[in-house]
Design brief:
single chain; mainly alpha; 65% helix; elongated
């Protein structure tokens, strides 16, 4: 899918800005954050925005070569949406020779700057080995970034990776947690996995006679403490 809207959103950062930040930070006043510094780095101009829209029109007309030629200079000036669109054309070989490695470069560059769609694209390229070496660890990294941002498909796929131990240490509890979050958004696959996993999860260990004796002697915690624990477990 081609990115349509974010051309008017401030492009956030290139990797060099991240690397330069520790030296630049000393010159900033108190209270300046990394995100402040990134967002001040540059803004998309009206001319760039109009040019981006010309690329969208060319793409919609099926002139992928023209779309690529329009978007590439914008991508090289760190327009996040243009970076993702250029990556998609390179990945699919539309209007330009297919080049998965270069596509991944633009996906990861914009993904690190916060474009969630590019994070998903990067994850699937690593997961599928789409023209690049398959790498479950890197796939899990990008799925995690998008999952934290709230993307149901990323949460589901991260759950699968934790359930099967793909790129991460096998962890049924984490898998269940990510499936649950994905299911809250109605993700069908996550709902199916929960239906399979939940009935088979072990319950709490039954108390022994010694535990029962301790419980009989120990005073119950005050009601306020019970309320606090309940609120902490169920925010």
């Amino acid at each position: 899918m081609i990115e349509l809207r974010p051309a008017r959103i401030p492009a956030l950062v290139v990797l060099a800005i991240w690397l330069a930040w520790p030296q630049a930070a000393a010159a900033q006043g108190p209270g300046t954050t990394v995100r402040d510094r990134i967002e001040q780095s540059r803004s998309v101009t009206r001319a760039d925005s109009d040019r981006f829209d010309e690329g969208v029109a060319a793409y919609d007309a099926g002139d992928f070569q023209k779309a690529f030629e329009i978007w590439l200079p914008l991508a090289q000036r760190d327009d996040l949406a243009a970076m993702r669109n250029v990556a998609t054309l390179l990945r699919q070989g539309k209007g330009v020779d297919r080049n998965p490695e270069r596509a991944l470069y633009f996906y990861e560059r914009s993904g690190r700057a916060g474009l969630v769609a590019s994070q998903i694209n990067s994850a699937f390229m690593y997961l599928d080995g789409d023209g690049i070496p398959q790498d479950y660890r890197k796939a899990s990294f990008w799925f995690h970034a998008a999952a934290v941002a709230g993307v149901p498909v990323a949460r589901y796929n991260l759950g699968v990776m934790y359930e099967r131990g793909l790129g991460v240490e096998e962890d049924p509890a984490r898998a269940l947690a990510w499936y649950t979050l994905a299911a809250r958004s109605g993700h069908a696959g996550a709902l199916d996995r929960l239906a399979v996993l939940v009935p088979h999860l072990p319950g709490p260990t039954p108390p022994t006679e010694a535990d029962a004796a301790l419980e009989a002697r120990a005073p119950a915690p005050p009601a306020a403490e019970l309320d606090r624990l309940d609120n902490a477990a169920n925010p």
